[in-house]
Amino acid sequence: MKALAARRHDRRAPALLLLLALLIVGGVYAVVVPSSAQATNETATADDIAAGEKLFQANCSTCHGPSAAGTDSVPSLIGVGAAAVDFQVGTGRMPMQMNGPQAPAKPVQFDDEQIRQLAAYVASLGAGPAIPTDEQVDPALGDSASGMALFRTNCAMCHNASGAGGALSQGKFAPNLWETTPTHLYEAMLTGPQSMPVFNDANLTSEEKRDIIAFLDEQGEVVPGGLDLGSLGPVSEGLWAWVVGLGLLIGISVWIGAKSS
Amino acid sequence: MSTHDHNDVVVHADGETTPARFENPGLHEHTPRQADVDPRVTKRVERQVLALFTASIIGTIVVVWAYFALPPGETASSMRTSNIVLGVGLAVCLLGIGIGGNYFIKVLMSNREYTEERHAQRSSDETREVAVQMLQDGAQDSGLTRRKALVGAGVTALALFPLSILVPLLGNVGSDWNVRKFKHTMWKKGMRLHTDPTNRPIRAADVTIGDVWHVIPEGLEELEHGKLDEKAKAVVLLVRLDPRDLRSDQSPEGETWSHDGIVAYSKICTHVGCPVALYEQQTHHLLCPCHQSTFDVADGCKVVFGPAKRPLPQLPITVDDEGYLVAQSDFTEPIGPTFWERATK
């Protein structure tokens, strides 16, 4: 703080303060005004789009094509929106490292600024879902009881009752959701990445998505039962009961029956 | 014991012989345990048993203390603490007694073998005669042999009484034997498709490609009786595919059961009735979580993998004047698993 205080008479201070004020105004605007595809396109400057296009040509066009139109085996990115880019690139799923049953989450390759530029470029190709605002994804504003009912019907069959994830066919899987950020959860529901179907705003409204985020926010932290064994249900619990539990019982029976030396 | 005849041998094909009976080897020689001969081992085991019993006592005290001092409370972490302390305390309490007691018996108590010869099982002829005489006298005395009709009535009463338990018991097994209910669901012509669990009508224009909607019939939530039974039969999964991807559906000649790439299929697996709802958007495969039956939504929900034998029945849908999705009729075949009277196709 002292260093800041000493520099407050700096020549550049007014400019910096102005920038800061603009950022705050912009941030408040983004929070207050519900986002839409148009809103993102407006907030993204032409510079962002140009920078995003450069990043796209360098990192994505090998597979998605120079015009992002995709091929038979690679999806077109026209109309997928900024939300899809923020999810796929922001969780490290894209750029894909190698072919496989599905692109798994891995360390993120771009910084927030680059992701924003990429998203701006892809959003400029065709209208699509925008990145949700902080208010739309704030778990504190959601109703976790309603979220549980919605999760149970719409999500639990793949992601497991507590969001611990589960297997799909041929090496594909529904990932664990405990560490996923609220924004990425929202974007996944909105855009339906990879095997996941889409849950658009008519199917699950923005508030309902937030309820689901609120429910997930309460999962995976403290387990009332003690050892959760990955919360995977009968597979890990059965393995534990049959191998460890029965093994112990057999061991004790052998010990009881054995003669003392 | 038995008498031995050493000439009684079994001759094998290769000329070798083995005795027909082996001599009873008797008990093997008693070997003392370490604890029997080494006083230091005895002392050590005594201390260990004492420690185990003491641990059990402490475990009981911990359980009783935790019951009062660590209530489950309202939060997950307080429940976790309560469960862990109660569980570990109970385990120490019971395992302490069990392991300590066994250890005590195995190592410290005498393990000398004793043989008690078995006495003859047959009673003496005299005793047997007396017993038979007593039974005959008793039968004579009771008059059972004279009052045959009374005895017959008594035996009949005894034989019939289990019916008073069996008849209501069997009657209550599936109180309802009306199999027709399995063949129909509450879907009717013009009934709107609503979202589960939010119960909103679905506009066809709102369903986008790649979507999956979990659907219940309009009016289900308002049912007074049997809501869950009806829901268990009527739930539907609604998916919109790119019409170019939709290779076939189950519409018969001259009818259209889907609407612009939107198809609705029963969510109840035709194998044993689990809710089939794991939908892979890219492959259009629908998986059953119980036994991995896989249905191809793009191809009339045909079975592509797993134990299910029939495709999931399709709900014929269309749109009404206001653009909402409605059913054209009920399912045209029974949903869910095979049952006794189900006609096979």
UniProtKB/TrEMBL annotation, chain A:
It is found in: Cell membrane. Heme c 2 binds at C155, C158, H159. GO terms for cellular component: plasma membrane. The chain crosses the membrane at residues 239-258. Binds 2 heme c groups covalently per subunit. Signal peptide: none annotated. Its EC number is 7.1.1.8. Heme c 1 binds at C60, C63, H64. It is a multi-pass membrane protein. GO terms for molecular function: heme binding; iron ion binding; quinol-cytochrome-c reductase activity. This is Cytochrome bc1 complex cytochrome c subunit.
UniProtKB/TrEMBL annotation, chain B:
GO terms for cellular component: plasma membrane. It is found in: Cell membrane. The keyword Transferase does not apply. It is a multi-pass membrane protein. GO terms for molecular function: 2 iron, 2 sulfur cluster binding; metal ion binding; monooxygenase activity; oxidoreductase activity, acting on paired donors, with incorporation or reduction of molecular oxygen. Residues 1-38 are annotated as: Disordered. InterPro entries: QcrA_N (IPR045603), Rieske_2Fe-2S (IPR017941), Rieske_2Fe-2S_sf (IPR036922), Rieske_Fe-S_prot (IPR014349). The keyword Cell membrane applies. Keywords: 2Fe-2S, Cell membrane, Disulfide bond, Electron transport, Iron, Iron-sulfur, Membrane, Metal-binding, Oxidoreductase, Respiratory chain, Transmembrane, Transmembrane helix, Transport. Residues 1-15, 26-38 have a biased composition (Basic and acidic residues). Its main location: membrane. Pfam families: QcrA_N, Rieske. The chain crosses the membrane at residues 49-70, 82-105, 149-171. Residues 233-326 form the Rieske domain. Iron-sulfur subunit of the cytochrome bc1 complex, an essential component of the respiratory electron transport chain required for ATP synthesis. The bc1 complex catalyzes the oxidation of menaquinol and the reduction of cytochrome c in the respiratory chain. The bc1 complex operates through a Q-cycle mechanism that couples electron transfer to generation of the proton gradient that drives ATP synthesis. PANTHER family: CYTOCHROME B-C1 COMPLEX SUBUNIT RIESKE, MITOCHONDRIAL. Belongs to the Rieske iron-sulfur protein family. This is Cytochrome bc1 complex Rieske iron-sulfur subunit. It comes from Cellulomonas gilvus (strain ATCC 13127 / NRRL B-14078) (Cellvibrio gilvus).
